[in-house]
Amino acid sequence: MKEFKHIWLAGLLLILALIIVPVALFWPKDAGAQDDPWADMPAHPAHTDHSAIVKGPFATGQEVTRECLSCHPAAGEQMLNSVHFTWEGDPVLLPGRDAPVTIGKKNSLNNYCIGIQSNWRGCTSCHAGYGFSDNDFDFANAENIDCLACHDNSGAYVKGDYGLPVEGVDLLASAQSVGLPTRQNCGACHFNGGGGNAVKHGDLDETLYFPTAAIDVHMGEFDFQCIDCHRTTNHQIAGRSLSVSVDDANQVYCTDCHARAPHTDERINTHLDSVACETCHVPQGAVRDATKMDWDWSTAGQDRPEDPHIYLKIKGSFVYEANFTPTYLWWNGTGDRYILGDPIDPDGVTEINLPLGDINDPNARIWPFKVHTANQPYDPVFNYLVQPQTVGEYWVNFDWYAAFEKGMETVGLPWSGQVGFTRTEMYWPLAHMVQPKENALTCTSCHSQNGRIDWIALGYAGDPMEWGARITP
Amino acid sequence: MTSSRNTPLSRKNLWLGALLVAAALLLTTGAALSRAGASPAEQTNGFHPTFALLDSDGVNVLSSGQPVSTMNTCGQCHDAEFISRHSFHSAAGLDDFSSPGAVANGRIWDTSNGQFGNWDPITYRYLSPAGDERIDLTTAGWVMLYGARHVGGGPAETGRAGQALASLRPDASDPEAAILDAHTGQTKAWDWESSGTVEMNCFLCHLSQPDNAARIAALEAGRFAWANTATLAATGWVIPAGNVYAWNPDAFVENGELKPEFVAIQDPAAANCGLCHGQVNADLSQPVVLGDSFAADWRTLTTGQVISGQRISNSGINLQSKAEITRSWDIHAERGLECVDCHYSLNNPVLAQRDPASQPEHLLFDPRRLDLSAYLYQPLHEFARGQSAQSAVAPELWNTMRRCDSCHDAAASHTWLPYAERHTAALACETCHSPQIYAPALQSRDWTVLDANHQPLSEFRGTDGSPADPAALVSGYRPVILPRQMVDGGAALAPYNLVTAWYWVYGDPARPVRLIDLEDAWFDSRAYSVEVLALFDADGDGQLSDLELRLDTDEKVALIAARLAALGLEDPRIQAEVQAYSINHNVTNGEWAIRDCSACHSADSILTAGFDLAAYAPGNTLPEFVAAGDSGGVMLGNESALFYQPAPQQAGLYILGRDSVTWVDWFGILAFLGTLAGVSLHGGLRWWSIARRKPAAPAVEKVYMYGVYERFWHWMQTITILLLIVTGLIIHKPDMFRAFSFHGVVVVHNVLAFLLVANAALSLFYHLASGEIRQYIPRPYGFFDQMFVQARFYLRGIFRGEPHPFEKSPQNKLNPLQKVVYFGILNVLLPLQVLTGALMWGAQRWPDLAARLGGLPFLAPAHTLVAWLFAAFIVAHVYLTTTGHEPLASMRAMMLGWDEVETHTG
Fold this sequence. Notes:
Structural class of chain B: alpha+beta
CATH superfamily of the largest domain in chain B: Transmembrane di-heme cytochromes, Chain C
Shape of chain B: elongated
Largest sheet of chain A: 8 strands, mixed
Distance between the termini of chain A: 76 Å
CATH topology of the largest domain in chain B: Fumarate Reductase Cytochrome B subunit
Helix content of chain A: 25-40%
Distance between the termini of chain B: 122 Å
Number of strands of chain A: 10
Oligomer: heterodimer
Strand content of chain A: 5-15%
Radius of gyration of chain A: 27 Å
Number of strands of chain B: 20
Strand content of chain B: 5-15%
Largest interface: A-B, 34 and 41 residues
Structural class of chain A: alpha+beta
CATH architecture of the largest domain in chain B: Up-down Bundle
């Protein structure tokens, strides 16, 4: 009888299989696009509680670092090679130049506070190190690394002149609190670039500490930390800013998590060869807090009523704007860069960091930018931009001549003795403050009489909705 | 402390104040400048050349100071005569103007198919035919009232007999040359010579900033000749000068032509169309609001449709759950389409499509098209149009426009949709793709009463207040789904709004009571008459609230009727009508369209949902549909509402999961329960009889009864049939099984049905090939006797412990009763079920075949009936397997093959 029972069971299984297999084959499938961004989200292991491990006491930041290195010896070497510490990137060959140049915050000019050289005391308070006070700073000494700047989780660690902890910081409490970098760690410098909240980037400001979904969908709705996108291995943090990095190595992309063509709407997906995700999903810059759009250094030094968003005697006059409509340009991810000493046309507008790419560049896509314009110091005889010393000099004495002289001496370039001001522009691609799809641009935002994109300026014959897409080689 | 905190605040306030003042200054100066005509309107494309403006004598307006003549001005380059002769927008029904009663499908008092003569109960005023005793709206009155939504030319220029209006002599008795004086109630002569007429107004549709308000003001004031010039008020070409306009020399160069920067001529944009047709908002930065213009936004008033690419969540309407409605008002507006992209000029060489019937079959595209210059000279101003019951004008152009499927390939985008062809055949695309209207719409207009402002009572759906009230909460509404007769034959269910109107008519043949007479019936010198107040003013406050203004008793109806009769109106009586306004815009994409099967396939199907018509039926008069739209449904009323219950069944539709034939289900349930009761009784008696007597254990022997394949096909059939009945029941009554996905269950049912048919076919082959089929074929000889013996055994012998009358053997497994029952099942029920099922499944593949066999309304109930019979059979069948020598013996035999058979040796 036993084998019969087996036949009976086998028969039942066969029948069930005959039914289940075709049902499974024909079962209605969801036709939605396959985008599962959570699958690529990095998992962060729980950080070891250091409160019982770190004993102290610490008199200086360097002592903390020494303690850190005693258990994490490799971290020192990693940090010594990271741009957060070196403040310069790998040498790159820029268009029109013979030799590669090394660019970074260390040696570059911008059109905000202009440059760090001779101004280290103020600027290097955001350096991930201790005591960066002149060109002789020892970049090879691992004890000069500031671990706490990024790993303090107490929220009470504050850096001051030359990046040293300010008076009164409880180094032991801070060292015992260490963990993964939080929004607070990154934001302390990156949200305050340019010397204050929201000044510089146009898409990074203190509203991102506790944003709503309408400010940033990733950080607001899904509670992302900075390091969820700016993935970090061995202290090399992914991400580039066109202001100081002209190549596109180690960049962060939406497609790190999202599918290449994630929209259910085929029409939207056909845009992706020419339009960056950010163009539609970062429809406005500086969503809540106003950012600086223009800076006129030439009016500095006057005794006028002051307002940090309108005029300051030490800095000149400003234009701030919130919720601004970006400027749209082709960008292939790389940029050109003004290098100290490059000749300029003082009557024209000097581009400090022109994004590269045009309609014929298959790697270029249309990107949203904040364009920061300035009227900044230059040498009217030698026709190049000038590095003035502001910290401790112009900001105290309001004497451009002394500021020019000291600054140019520091950078080792001749100064004619003349002072002038010239128009410059900087480009800031907008990639934060990403909006949920409900707030993204719609067709007629760009494709209409009053659309926000100037198609002819981008190189099209007219609106590609009517003229067709660009044809790239 | 306080002062230091206050300083920055007050400074901020100061700044704010200064900004506000500056903005106000800018706005006012801007407005003043545009009024003064100093700033040119924005030229949207530089294509149109400069031109001179000519008056009706062909003289440059700069020298004559006369109003512009569009025919002469635009006629310098375009064939303006041709354009105005080929435009139903202009003719507005004048072409087929006839006498009352002669309009096909019209009301008895209608005189044309167009706005000029086709009475509409929303505006109410009646264009009086010649010779009518009581003149209501004269031609001049029509231009004043309807001119707001008429482009000029046609009846604003030409008389009903084709004569020029300007040639008519003033005559107080001629509705073409008179006007009704609202104060005296008398007609007086109208002098067309001094008022002028309205030429077709090219500027209204072809300017980027036409001043429609100024145009309407000129029309309402009877300054017809200046209406088209008034349209230019925002262009900078003219400067207002009292009642007329002076030409602004700064806008022109010496030779009298416009300066290039003032030429703001363009293709008609959606906003131009919206001036007459409904609310359009092309500027994404300006939130959509309803406001006071709602009543003038015709399509928005009648349907709630708004044309804008803006996300509804960004609108300024106080809309319920607005933040979640992130779809746009209209996907086509969102995607940058203009009205004229679908409603194009019929000879536009870019968009015109040829009638496929006039083309050789092999030809996909005929490149021989009108030359662009020829088109620009004579652009047809007949525009491709759909079909709507209200706009009956130009019936020859119905459905000249592209339909959804001219641009969209539904098959490519609806792969997820089961029975896609069947759905697209039975449903208009709009049914799923315009599932909800997010603005209010007119629901009813009651002209039987007048409020204190001499206005009718209006009710709106989709809002808890008035559409003009920005504080009212708007919920929007779900359109009613009614069959739409398609031009190519057939009917498809499509979304509509229903607008019901009640009004008084008089005389024979009937015509609407004039507004002026209605006012006399309700009011005595501007106040409600004492008689009226006495009857209607329930709370005695001397006012009539909307709730008191109800003709809800015979007494009230009789009073108003008597007061109308006293004015000399013969037999005044209440009539009511429902107009179905079709919804074709406010389309959304698949993400927001109806995708849920149960929206239609359930008891609360939207296809049969009741649709509110009004709070009550004035004069107890039930409305009737005018023209198309009626689904054969019923008007139902209760104390709080009158509503319409659509009946798509009348259009030959059977909605699975929603529809059923009651008697089939009752019969089926009775058959099932009856069988269950029968076997229970029989089983109970058996149990009782066995308990009473000691059953003799019959001698049995083991026989290998059922081969492996026999057992396999039997159990395969068993499982599929059981599952088919269960899934079929879920599809039949999805509301009782809400846990299941309708779509999924349909798929399982179809797969099972295929398996059942395949299994039946293979087993038929087996039985034929092996000769086993003989077992199923009743032998005629002595068969009835044998059946009788078997039946007697079940009814008597089985209770007495008698042996089975017929020996079961591998060669003869079935007893005579089984044979006849299986013969019936296999030859009648199973084929019937397979056939009806296959045809239902094939309703989209072979719709004609299914339709010829009665269509779903016959096939589906038949399928249900047979399913019930199968269910009943299974109960009996399973029970009878227990009648062997021991209850589970047969079941075990069918599972394991070996049966124990009684040996009838004695």
